[in-house]
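Input set for joint prediction.
Command: fold jointly, output tokens.
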Amino acid sequence: MTESNQETFEEQAMPFLDQLYGAAMRMTRNPTDAEDLVQETYAKAFASFHQYKQGTNLRAWMYRILTNTFINTYRKQQREPKISGSENIEDWQIHRAASHTAEGLRSAESEAIDLLGDSVVKDALAQLPEDFRLAVYLADVEGFAYKEIAEIMDTPLGTVMSRLHRGRGQLREMLADHARELGMKVEAP
Amino acid sequence: MSHDVEPCHCEEAIKNLWLYLDSEIEAVLVERIKAHIQTCQTCRQELAWEERVRSLLRRSCTEQAPEELRVQIRHRITVIRSAESS
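tokens >
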């Protein structure tokens, strides 16, 4: 391994540090583990940099290593979050969305939601089951395509879409509840 | 402007809204959804809500890695490189 190889790697990979740290924070839910996870990720990425094909999606490649490292190292130690997926949540979410908009609540929720603090949002995400949380994070925060998410999480496309749909449903439910409470407090004379 | 008395029952639109916003929907449906949103206040509100949620998530989840981490990583890479060369 040469110095120029290291330079190339640092030049290309270091710009992703903040993002990867952000993702690691959502996975591990604490800064110490997040730092360790990111460090391991960069170590592994550098060690296998010869396997990376220049010009292809380096960001997705790095996220794949991050996710893999998380699963192998930290996942077993994680406390299970409170919420578990339920069977027919998709239909229920659609029905709820339809009835919600019928009651005209949506615009009130939209107004209040910007007022939610960062910690409220992060806590809500943290309550999602891991697989849902990761899919939602990769799609909504990082903007990865479904196909990229499937590669990163090493699962079929259909599984990604299912996790995404259910995770988003649960998360938006929590955020809507918070927004509504906040809206009520704000409105109260 | 007519007032939306009836809730929008276009479950197809709501179901497809996420696909539409994710740019994962077939081109043929994009136009249909766009056209529908223009005429439906309910779906417009749903769309506005969804866009705000995503914006909120991005805002809240932005993190900055500690400077020491950057230093540690650089050091670790150097160690790996030295080990490989020896």
